[in-house]
């Protein structure tokens, strides 16, 4: 993942971790290793959705093509509103997140 992509993810981390269910996204994230996926599932089982989402985002940021696969996984799991936020931020259209 490129630096600019990481910055976008960090800026939107709260929104991502509030809304995604990590376990549902795993089948759509081929950039992750099997160990990554197992770790995310364990975190989800033991600590809940939010902790698993934090771990998932951390692992995605370390992988090549992670940003593109994150976008695709969000679409495929019904989180198009998050894709909209990401694209708005990426295109410089989102200066403030107040109201979201």
From TrEMBL:
Domain of life: Eukaryota
All residue ranges annotated as the Caspase recruitment domain in the record: 1-86
Claim: Phosphoprotein is one of the keywords in the record: yes
GO cellular component: cytoplasm
Keywords: Immunity, Innate immunity, Isopeptide bond, Phosphoprotein, Ubl conjugation
Keyword Ubl conjugation among record annotations: yes
Classification via SUPFAM superfamilies: DEATH domain
Stored InterPro entries: CARD_dom, DEATH-like_dom_sf
Any single biological process term in GO: innate immune response
Pfam families per record: CARD_2
Protein name according to UniProt: Caspase recruitment domain-containing protein
Organism (species): Exaiptasia diaphana (Tropical sea anemone)
């Amino acid at each position: 993942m490129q630096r600019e992509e990481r910055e976008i993810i960090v800026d939107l981390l709260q929104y991502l971790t509030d809304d995604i269910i990590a376990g549902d996204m795993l089948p759509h994230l081929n950039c992750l290793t099997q160990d990554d996926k197992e770790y995310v599932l364990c975190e989800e089982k033991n600590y809940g959705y939010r902790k698993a989402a934090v771990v998932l985002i951390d692992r995605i940021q370390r992988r090549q093509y992670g940003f593109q696969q994150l976008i695709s996984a969000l679409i495929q799991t019904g989180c198009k509103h998050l894709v909209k936020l990401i694209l708005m931020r990426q295109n410089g259209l989102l200066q403030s997140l107040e109201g979201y």
